[in-house]
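Escalation from tier 1.

The customer reports that the assembly of two entities below gives different structure tokens on two consecutive runs. Tier 1 could not reproduce it. I'm attaching the input and our single run for tier 2 to review.
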Amino acid sequence: MYRLTTRTRAGTATQIAVLVLVVAAIALPAVTSRGVIQDLFFILTMLTLAQIWNLLAGYAGLVSVGQQAFVGIGAYAMFAGVILLGWNPVPASLLGGLAALALAVPTAFFAFRLQGAYFAIGTWVIAEVTRLLIAQWKALGGGTGTSLPREATSNIIGTDAIRALFGVREAAARDILAYWLALALVVVVTGCIYWLLRSRLGLALAAARDNVDAARSVGVDVRRLKWAVFLIAAAATGLTGALIFVQTARISPEAAFAVTDWTAHVIFIVVIGGIGTIEGPIVGVLVFFALRAALADYGSWYLMTLGLAAVAVMLFAPKGLWGLISARTGLHLFPVRRRLAGPKIEGGN
Amino acid sequence: MIWLDTLVQGILLGGLYALFAAGLSLVFGIMRLVNLAHGDLIVFAAYLVLMGVTLLGLSPWVAALIAMPAMFALGWLLQAAVLNRVLGKDILPPLLVTFGLSVALQNGLLEAFSADSRRIPVGALEGASLDLGLVTVGVMPLMTFASAIVAIVALNGLFYHTALGRAFRATSDDAVTAGLMGIEPKRVFAVATGIAMVVVTLAALYLGMRANFDPSIGPARLIYAFEAVIIGGLGSLWGTLAGGIIIGVAQAAGAAVNPEWQILAGHIAFLAVMLLKPRGLFPRAVD
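Tier 1 run:
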């Protein structure tokens, strides 16, 4: 008669709205310019990275400052697939996910021995070590980096069809393809995280985050759970990294392993939007992009403002902008809280 | 005798890293605060000293001496107004706040001083060296190392032989109980960060005199400093010196094999120590 559910009316409405939005987003390249598609690609990939970091830090308690290791290794594995193995960049991106997964195993083995701040610094050092090692890889340009060869970028799977469909140039077609892939990636990653949080595993994750000992006592294998989250997050980050560099078609160790771009900005997005919610990174990435667009002409002021905004949010609204909205309105677009549903219980007498 | 030379250069380089790390070690040991802006604060102090030299025509030493109280005030204010609000059981808020400060500081410096490399001019001292028979050492590295020792002796004296130091140790061990004994942890923290910034100014002086610096080099210094602190163990200043030396020697050895391996070798030494001793070599306090 009574059952536990996470379903709410707002949640169902959101799911329908997301569906409509995704369909509209797929059709968007038909009516917008190349610049808009590039901006959207940037927003979508940053959102993917933000959702992944939010899963790590906001739900699994794994405060990694070394996610750039997985972006970088993913991007370089894709380049290796294209340049050394002659693969097409799109399937080579899968290689990026695999490489990140492979790097995550020794990283987790090492970093999980460390606690709190040591974990954060440890992951950063591993990212630095990976960057310095990759910079020794002469076949991929060493410290100065390299570009995707023209033969590879000019016949990426699907670009011919896109050119025919929209009547655009080859470079624009590549952007559209990258945009669609980024759209697919963000939907799959966010969807998987949402599913995970609503499943038994999500409950275990929340329990482990709130109190490790209590979670253990009711049979949650915290260690295995953290391993699983870390590895999945790494693979998804690697895939995103590969995709980002399919679009730019140019790579260097500094760009691929940049702690500011792939970790600091991502953290700011999550913090400003609201850590520990799925809505947070979405709000955060919109603020991030709006700031970037508004201050584009003022050079480094934009990054300074971003950093200070993150500090201000942490001081005055630790749950982020979405936390403020949610507290005022009681709105949860992606509800994960379990409620008892069924016929109303009549009062005592 | 090349290996002996490498060893000596590495140890002296470790002195610089220990200077970078001493302030961090103090703050981290007392309040477990992970200050990700530490490296950028060193660079900031270096610009402060540079301004004293170029704008006011002071000698670097005098400029640093003047910058020290200013940096103390900055540290005190930073702790009292910002960092004290986010300290707690959860390490995430201070980590995020200092990360935000780090990026803001880097870009603020970039805006104020441009990306050009700068250096604090010291005249003849720059290239001077001493012949010690078996090895020849630079005067500047030697002075850096000596300053690191002096800073650590002074900090240890403060830590173990003064009332303030007793308050530091008490809050480090148990902030709540220390509070019951009439210590105000937040005021203690503010003073500690102020003192850390004085050491940062000293580190900045040597950073700027020994090599070129620009607004972007902070995070790398932060990593070296943190590695030294973690290798040494929580709350041990001599441990921090040992950590700095381990990284310095590893870097010198790596560079001797292949110049491109210098930084890598330092990081690998850190990872190796962490694998064997996840709490560092000489931890004083329990985390």
